[in-house]
Amino acid sequence: MPQLVPFFFVNQVVFAFAIFVMLIYVFSKYILPRFVRLFATRLFISKL
């Protein structure tokens, strides 16, 4: 049914955008601070 093709692409774009936003949130909230803390600890230990 060709009339459903635009809705399929809108659905794909909405879900891709939602997953992208969720990944950015998870990275900024959980993963990146752990790496920053790790590198800060390594820097502090190497300065001793």
From TrEMBL:
Positions in coiled-coil regions: none
Task: Output the Pfam families linked to this UniProt entry.
Answer: Fun_ATP-synt_8
This protein's GO cellular component annotations are: mitochondrial inner membrane; proton-transporting ATP synthase complex
- The yes or no answer to whether the keyword Transmembrane is present is yes
Q: What are the transmembrane regions?
A: 6-27
Cite the entry's keywords alphabetically.
Answer: ATP synthesis, CF(0), Hydrogen ion transport, Ion transport, Membrane, Mitochondrion, Transmembrane, Transmembrane helix, Transport
Q: Membrane topology per the record? A: Single-pass membrane protein
GO MF entries:
proton-transporting ATP synthase activity, rotational mechanism
Q: Kindly give the InterPro entries that the UniProt entry links to this protein.
A: ATP_synth_su8_fun (IPR009230)
Grouped into one coarse class, the protein's main location is mitochondrion
Subcellular localization? Mitochondrion inner membrane; Mitochondrion membrane
Described by its record, this protein's role is as follows: Mitochondrial membrane ATP synthase (F(1)F(0) ATP synthase or Complex V) produces ATP from ADP in the presence of a proton gradient across the membrane which is generated by electron transport complexes of the respiratory chain. F-type ATPases consist of two structural domains, F(1) - containing the extramembraneous catalytic core and F(0) - containing the membrane proton channel, linked together by a central stalk and a peripheral stalk. During catalysis, ATP synthesis in the catalytic domain of F(1) is coupled via a rotary mechanism of the central stalk subunits to proton translocation.
Q: Which family does it belong to?
A: Belongs to the ATPase protein 8 family.
Its subunit composition reads: F-type ATPases have 2 components, CF(1) - the catalytic core - and CF(0) - the membrane proton channel.
Question: This chain belongs to which protein, by name?
Answer: ATP synthase protein 8
| Gene of this entry | atp8
